[in-house]
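Hi team,

Filling in the usual template for the complex we talked about on Friday. All components are listed, including any nucleic acid strands or ligand strings, so the model treats them as one assembly.

SUBMITTER: L.P.
PURPOSE: interface mapping
COMPONENTS: two
RESIDUES: 232
SEQUENCES:
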Amino acid sequence: AQKITQTQPGMFVQEKEAVTLDCTYDTSDPSYGLFWYKQPSSGEMIFLIYQGSYDQQNATEGRYSLNFQKARKSANLVISASQLGDSAMYFCAMREGLYNQGGKLIFGQGTELSVKP
Amino acid sequence: DTGVSQDPRHKITKRGQNVTFRCDPISEHNRLYWYRQTLGQGPEFLTYFQNEAQLEKSRLLSDRFSAERPKGSFSTLEIQRTEQGDSAMYLCASRGRSRGEETQYFGPGTRLLVL
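RESULT (copied from the run log):
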């Protein structure tokens, strides 16, 4: 069964430091996509970064990078140089199957990140 | 490009009433998804449209729930005879039609409170 596990309910990080949010996944499908979303207290889900199962290199988007370890089925999010505005819930999600299939997302439980000044 | 919009942003209703939510996807996005998020949980998939066709429904979508996308543009989600357990955030997302467009973009959500 498809599953996303985020084992850190809450994390603290000092402003300007880097932080890693953990995510492991389980799927038997060879084609899948992994996503990270940020959800501030306002509720909107903000897309951060995407990694395809066949991508050879780890994805990066500005201060965000995804540490993709396929054999270990992990897709950790690294935020460099944390800012106060990074305080939010962070969700890891997985899409199973090829592009032309439905593509529903399976989400983890989330990690609440708090950035300290 | 304007983002995904949802209306209303908040809805308070009494148990037993019907409610309807609207989602306007990013223009040209042919795929539209509805999710439900309860407090402290990640979003859970409800249903998926490709153009006007509803191609997948979750078991979470009981008979009291119905979703439509009549012209392949905006979508509505209706809940009949609401129950307190329906209280949640209802999120809509859209995704493009082109190969390589992997990302689902979410709207601001509709927070439903059933009293």
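MY TAKE: The radius of gyration of chain B is 14 Å. Chain B has no helices and eleven strands.

Thanks, L.
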